[in-house]
Amino acid sequence: MGATMITVHLRYEIDPDKQAEFADYGRRWIHLVNRLGGTHHGYFLPSEGDSDEAFALTFPSLASYEQYRAAAAEDAECLDALRFATETKCIRRYERRFLSPLFE
């Protein structure tokens, strides 16, 4: 049996007045995740309904996620993106879940 496919689901509670800053943060991470071996499926930003939630889906396997985390911890661009989020306070908090898809 091959490696189990997973999706890392991130739920962000964002400042609704800082959606532009969060979008900038998201664009940075899409590039970074893809550069560091992940498969980023984009960010899903508020449109209608709740104005303070955004989501991201990344990584096809737990192994690739673990490799990414190790590389990101020392990557200057990643550290700069985290610093940007801290300085702008566009993210209030986030949750990370590991999900296995079920297909027909």
Number of domains: 1
Text of the CATH class: Alpha Beta
**Total count of helical runs of at least 4 residues:** 3
With strands numbered from the N-terminus, the spatial order across the biggest sheet is 2-3-1-4
Radius of gyration: 14 Å
Shape: globular
SSE arrangement, N to C: EHEEHHE
Class from helix and strand fractions: alpha+beta
Beta fraction of the residues? 25-35%
**Name of the CATH architecture:** 2-Layer Sandwich
Distance between the termini: 18 Å
How is the CATH topology named?
Alpha-Beta Plaits
Uncertain stretches of 5 or more adjacent residues? none
| Share of helix, binned | 25-40%
Overall pLDDT:
88
Largest sheet: 4 strands, antiparallel
User: What is the tally of beta strands?
Assistant: 4
Pfam family, one: NIPSNAP
Protein name: NIPSNAP protein
Organism: Agromyces ramosus
InterPro entries: Dimeric_a/b-barrel, NIPSNAP
